[in-house]
Design brief:
The chain is mainly beta and 173 residues long. It is 7% helix and 34% strand.
Length: 173
């Protein structure tokens, strides 16, 4: 397994004891400022992400990051899909490739594949960045790499077993 895909740490049986699905990162806490390293003002690399307590029956996952405060409307920064259920997270700096080990990445609203960090207009104040993970009851969405968010969401419809999110914020002066 490549170094940026993290295996699930705990066993499924233990995780199913009535716990709520969670999405976490060591880069920031809920509602805190996203470190510059993960933005267009820094290295523009993806932060590490870990998900836990998946619902019973989860066969794959989808991760979407967006900014609902963008002047043009919700701006999509990252789309990852067909994540196998035995993957427990990603290390930081996920490569910007369409597919690796069956995990696919879609196009962001910057127009390229993979992660595009926070980059709000200067002087626009804080923007909120939501990272959302969805547990699905299908192994694959059946679409090729480089799909749009809309295509991914259409295929997810009717297959979502649970979801979790974490929000960070960022502003440029």
């Amino acid at each position: 397994m490549l170094g940026f895909i993290l295996p699930e740490i705990a066993t499924r049986g233990f995780l199913m004891g009535g716990k709520i699905m969670r999405l976490e990162t060591t880069a920031f806490r809920e509602g805190e400022t996203i470190p510059q390293k993960y933005t267009c003002d820094g290295l523009n690399i993806s932060p590490p992400m870990v998900w836990k307590d998946l619902p019973v029956g989860t066969k794959s996952l989808v991760l979407i990051m967006d900014d609902p405060d963008a002047p043009i409307g919700t701006f999509t920064h990252w789309v990852v899909y067909d994540i196998p259920s035995d993957v427990g997270g990603f290390a930081e700096d996920m490569p910007r490739v369409g597919e690796f080990e069956g995990v696919k990445q879609g196009l962001n609203d910057f127009g390229y594949v993979g992660y595009g960090g926070p980059c709000p207009p200067k002087g626009h104040g804080f923007h909120r960045y939501f990272f959302r993970i969805y547990a699905l009851d299908v192994e694959s969405l059946g679409i090729p790499p480089m799909a749009t968010r809309k295509q991914v969401e259409e295929r997810m419809r009717g297959h979502i077993l649970g979801e979790a999110s974490i929000m960070g914020k960022y502003r440029r002066n």
